[in-house]
């Protein structure tokens, strides 16, 4: 359970009420990873990270990282074949495997590691169930506050994630889960705040440690850069570009074969101020968080084209957070939508060769858009059933159970 934000009884109240219009998008997500500073201890059963090499099976020119045909619930480990991985790389506007085949990399975002640990569910079963739902990639968020507990704490979590990912044929993306304005020090919550020095330290140590670990496929260098204008903040795209290129240089120096993910401003949504080459760095993929509240004009593709889709011919793009909930009461302006939204965004992604990780493969008080409703059976929610169906091969226009009956 996450702590109360800003000393209020409602963990979202003050931040939500200070905003207006589309600027409110992502504010609750900004608070969701705020448990790290409260964590009492990390899981002590550390697994060591090591190199893993080898090929992957391919079907029709697209890499399938693992065969995860179980349709739900907890799968038996004996039915899941451990995989070895080829190193992923960028080829044009696609992410490909070591044989040059386009990689099928869709999957899920986890909750931040300390929140999951405090819930009692940071364990192999979480990865087993994600694989059973068809995931090929898991995004693993690390709050800066977790890093401030010590790099050994972070690496304990990440070493375990690597070990469990290997068992179930998964790649992982390490997400530095910062939310806000770095140059002016304006953040939503202390646990997701950072400094440039701390960020450099995190990525220097982390990218060096996992440089030879092919299971760690991506470094999401800065989760959601945002100016936060309503608190007096400003952040030009040119300044963000300079910072992002600096961070990319660090991870590519330490870990030249791991793919950096780089977000746009406006909470990882808008690249348009950067034009056709938003960053000077080469061999990067773009990270985008398109939630229902970002664009409400139909067709939604018009807004997506303007903000990020126009770059899909030149860069690999990953929707590192997508989600919806027809019953959302936490921040309806941002997250409330039905299966129609899911079909729109995944059809758009499929058309443009964009991969994705759905938010959020976790269930906890105050978290919007959970993909399952209980920890006992991992019962899918409306959005969970939709994303699971697509991952298991159901056509996008047939996936999901339609609109939910909300309580």
Mean pLDDT: 83
The major β-sheet equals: 8 strands, parallel, barrel
Terminal CA distance reads 22 Å
Q: How many structural domains does the protein architecture include?
A: 1
Q: What is the total tally of β strands?
A: 16
Q: CATH fold name, please? A: TIM Barrel
**Which secondary-structure class do the elements indicate?**
alpha/beta
Report the radius of gyration as a whole number of Å: 19 Å
Q: What's the CATH H-level superfamily name? A: Glycosidases
The number of helical runs is 13
Q: Give the overall shape.
A: globular
* Largest sheet, spatial ordering of strands: 6-7-8-11-13-14-15-16
| Spans where pLDDT lies below 50 across 5 or more residues | 1-84
> What series of H and E elements makes up the topology?
HHEEEEEEHHEHHEEEHEEHEHEHEHHEH
Strand content: 15-25%
- Give the % helix: 25-40%
| CATH architecture descriptor | Alpha-Beta Barrel
Quick summary:
The protein has 407 residues and is an alpha/beta fold. It has helices at 13-17, 27-32, 113-119, 124-132, 144-148, 151-167, 196-209, 237-254, 265-268, 300-307, 332-335, 339-352, 382-391; strands at residues 58-59, 62-64, 89-91, 94-96, 102-104, 107-110, 137-142, 171-176, 179-181, 186-187, 216-220, 224-225, 259-263, 285-288, 317-322, 355-361.
Description:
Residues 1-84 have low confidence and may be disordered. The strands form 4 sheets. Strands 6-7-8-11-13-14-15-16 form an 8-stranded parallel barrel, surrounded by 6 helices. The chain has a 3-stranded mixed beta sheet with strand order 1-2-5, with no helix packed on it. The protein is built from 13 helices and 16 strands. The chain has helices at 13-17, 27-32, 113-119, 124-132, 144-148, 151-167, 196-209, 237-254, 265-268, 300-307, 332-335, 339-352, 382-391, and strands spanning 58-59, 62-64, 89-91, 94-96, 102-104, 107-110, 137-142, 171-176, 179-181, 186-187, 216-220, 224-225, 259-263, 285-288, 317-322, 355-361. It is globular. The two termini are 22 Å apart. The longest helix has 18 residues, at 237-254. It is of the alpha/beta class and 407 residues long. Helix 7 runs parallel beside helix 8 (237-254). It has one domain (5-398): TIM Barrel. Helices cover 30% and strands 16% of the residues. A hairpin with a 2-residue loop joins strand 1 and strand 2 (62-64).
């Amino acid at each position: 359970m996450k702590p109360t934000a800003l000393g209020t009884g409602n963990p979202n109240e003050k931040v939500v009420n200070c905003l207006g219009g589309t600027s409110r998008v992502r504010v609750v997500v900004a608070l969701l990873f705020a448990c790290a500073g409260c964590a009492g201890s990390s899981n002590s059963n550390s697994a060591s990270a090591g190199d893993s090499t080898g090929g992957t099976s391919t079907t029709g020119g697209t890499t399938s990282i693992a065969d995860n045909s179980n349709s739900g619930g907890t799968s038996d480990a004996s039915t899941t074949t451990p995989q070895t991985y080829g190193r992923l790389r960028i080829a044009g506007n696609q992410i490909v495997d070591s044989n040059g085949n386009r990689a099928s990399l869709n999957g899920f975002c986890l909750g931040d590691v300390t929140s999951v640990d405090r819930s009692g569910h940071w364990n192999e079963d979480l990865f087993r169930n994600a694989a059973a739902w068809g995931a090929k990639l898991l995004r693993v968020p690390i709050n800066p506050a977790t890093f401030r507990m010590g790099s050994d704490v972070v690496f304990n979590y990440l070493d375990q994630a690597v070990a469990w990912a290997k068992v179930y044929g998964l790649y992982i993306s390490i997400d530095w889960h910062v939310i806000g304005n770095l140059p002016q020090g304006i953040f939503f919550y202390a646990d997701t705040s950072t400094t440039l020095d701390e960020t450099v330290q995190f990525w220097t140590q982390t990218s060096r440690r996992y440089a030879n670990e092919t299971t760690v496929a991506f470094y999401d260098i800065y989760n959601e850069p945002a100016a936060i204008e309503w608190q007096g903040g400003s952040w030009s795209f040119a300044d963000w570009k300079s910072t992002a290129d600096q961070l990319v240089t660090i991870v590519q120096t330490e870990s030249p074969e791991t793919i950096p993910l780089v977000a746009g401003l406006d909470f990882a949504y808008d690249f348009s101020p950067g034009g056709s080459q938003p960053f000077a760095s080469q061999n990067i993929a773009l990270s985008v968080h398109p939630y229902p509240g970002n664009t409400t004009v139909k067709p939604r593709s018009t807004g997506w084209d303007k903000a990020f889709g126009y770059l899909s011919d030149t860069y690999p793009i990953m929707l590192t957070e997508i989600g919806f909930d027809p019953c959302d009461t936490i921040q309806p302006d941002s997250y409330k939508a039905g299966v129609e939204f899911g079909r729109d965004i995944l059809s758009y992604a499929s058309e443009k060769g964009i991969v994705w990780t759905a938010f959020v493969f976790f269930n906890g008080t105050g978290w919007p858009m959970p993909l399952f409703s209980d920890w006992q059976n991992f019962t899918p929610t409306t959005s969970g059933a939709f994303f699971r169906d697509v991952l298991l091969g159901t056509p996008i226009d047939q996936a999901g159970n339609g609109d939910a009956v909300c309580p």
